[in-house]
Amino acid sequence: MATLLLAAVVFGGVLLVIVIWFVSMYNDLVALRNMVKNAWAQIDVQLKRRHDLIPNLVETVKGYATHEKETLENVTRARAAAVSAEGVGAQSQAEQTLSGALGRLMLVVEAYPDLKANQNFLALQEELTSTENKVGFARQAYNDSVMRFNTKIQTVPANIVAGAFNFTAEEFFEVQEEAVREAPKVSFS
Question: Is this prediction's pTM over 0.85?
Fold first, then answer.
């Protein structure tokens, strides 16, 4: 009888440890998933800020560069696509397109010395540069969160709990185009 009681206590103890481990693992996965969602929300905040600055920048340039209509329209279209993009992959692609359009806009600005000296333009350009830096930091934080989450759901023993509750890997916010990955070439010749 004592042996049976001891076996029941041991079995109950083992079962309790398994339940505690299972609950702990599930809670860890939920916390990591929420970190990924929060990191994405931080990117979204910075992208909205970027999207809000662009129309002001375009209007300022428009006053000086009236014959650069195509470049200004491309920026406006790229902004609209970026604002309406949904999901990490679509947002990443739209933001790359917008970055390219903004780069072409800045090249146009180089041809207008009066515009480059305009205080409103300079303030907008500085604000956009600051926002671009914040977007970069937010992307890095998001990708770090995604890496921790994906690693957790793919490693033993957490993958057992992740599979049981349909935790799926999150998508990284990546640069797809090789030209965007390359460092700009600076030449003083």
Answer: no
Q: Is residue 43 a part of any domain in this protein? A: yes
87: left (phi over 0), alpha (psi -120 to 50) or beta: left
Q: Please, is 184 exposed, middle or buried when counting C-beta atoms within 10 Å of its C-beta (0-12, 13-18, 19+)?
A: exposed
SS3 173: coil
Q: Are 87 and 170 in contact, with CB atoms under 8 Å apart?
A: no
Are 180 and 92 in contact by the 8 Å Cβ rule? The answer is no
The CATH number of residue 59's host domain is: 1.20.1440.20
How far is 149 from 88, CA to CA, in rounded Å? 15
8-65 residue pLDDT tens: 999 999 999 999 999 999 999 999 999 999 999 999 999 999 999 999 888 888 888 7
Q: Distance between CA 44 and CA 35 in Å, rounded?
A: 14
Burial class (CB in 10 A: 0-12, 13-18, 19+), 166: exposed
In a domain, 166, yes or no: no
Q: How many CB atoms lie within 10 A of CB 145?
A: 21
User: Contact, 138 vs 42, CB < 8 A?
Assistant: yes
Length of the chain: 189
Angle (CA) 118 120 125, round 5°: 95
